[in-house]
Amino acid sequence: MPKLPAKGKTMFSIPGKAAVSMTPRASAQITRLMQSGGKKGLRIGVKKGGCAGMEYTMDYVDEIDPLDEVIEQDGARVMIAPMAQMFLFGTEIDYTTSLLESGFEFKNPNVTEACGCGESIKFAGM
Q1: Residue-wise pLDDT tens digits, 58-108
Q2: Domains of the chain: which residue ranges?
Q3: pLDDT (tens digit, 9 = 90+) per residue, 2-37?
Q4: Superfamily grouping for domain 20-123
Q5: How far is the C-alpha of 24 from the C-alpha of 108, rounded, in Å?
């Protein structure tokens, strides 16, 4: 049976480096949404699905799972589910707005392919 990381540690971490980072726009939007909904933060992850094989997941949560990687920046709190940590390490989260849409954007160095709409992704070896 694999040994779980000690509290506050992650399975895929580099000392002194957060697993993901947020642009100022992303942290401001996450903070606004946390405050308006009374949530503890945003949990991000990945799941099987979409035309490229995997999809990002995002959920606002009321409780922090003790195994989550927790990143706090400028009042925003993002949690990464344990099984997603290896896929999301090094990702930058941005929040973009345009004339037609607005939303979070993941700049993930681990992605090898993405579908045309950008909703589905593929990682090396998957």
Answers
A1: 998 999 999 999 999 999 999 998 888 888 888 899 999 999 989 998 888
A2: 20-123
A3: 344 444 444 445 555 678 999 999 999 999 999 988
A4: HesB-like domain (2.60.300.12)
A5: 17
